[in-house]
Design goal:
single chain; about 290 residues; mainly alpha; about 75% helix; elongated
Length: about 290
Amino acid sequence: MFEATARRAWDSEGLETIKELAQKRLKENGWDDIRPALSVTVRAWIMRASVEGNLREEPQAAVQYFKRALDLLEWGRTIWKDVPKDNRGAIFEDTFLTGVRGLYLKMFMNAHHTDPGLNSKFPLEHLKEEAEDLLKETDRISRNPTKEEVDPGFVSSFISYPAGIAHSMIGLYYVQMSRYSGDPMQKMFCFMKGARAYLEAANKYPEDDELHAWSLNCTLDLMRRSVGVKVGNFNRVADRLREAAPKMMKIWAFSALGQGGRDQKIQANLDNAQDIMKRVAEGKLTLDDPVPLG
């Protein structure tokens, strides 16, 4: 609150009013005045979204704060596209935007769960489109790295993790769509697409990150329900999960996901993989056989 007052940030004004006032202040007072005001305004909305979505468990309200932040960021990036970073501020950089978009995707899915179905106010098609667009953006940034020296944590926070979130949201999209389809072939298509998306997500996270192991677990869940997945391919993912789980436990043993049955679900998939490989050793299955549907 003190910083917002000191920087003369905006709070209750409407989005279009803020845009008008920002341009007016820029003309009158210059970048040294408007840059911190915009930064505090956007960051305050992001913090408010986190509070609404995570502490108050009101993801629908949180989505609106994220949308306000993203709208203002996109607007500023457009009208000040040729203004140097030192003037307009870090919030209008590519990487800051990808970080916010990743958070928005997660909250949008949470909001969908409060109003599920094909006619949701938070439609799955929109989630998928946003996730695919974010992947294009993170890929573009990766192929055109900044000349500034950045540490690995920066790359993880603003490129790898948003990409992982995007892939996992696409995976979730297919999981949800499989539940809404009455066509067995369409369900199988969703399982296969979802497994591929979760495997891509796993590849974006460090091996000791909870989301790496959990994405591999989600991959196995969907591979077990897909027709034609080879035992060898299934076992390769299971081996990765078996290696990742102990690394995860050193850091994430008591996380919220851990308290929600994560470890039991992982163990169930690992036990299933072990049973399948036992049948291979006994000659009852080969690595090229399809995984028994589970």
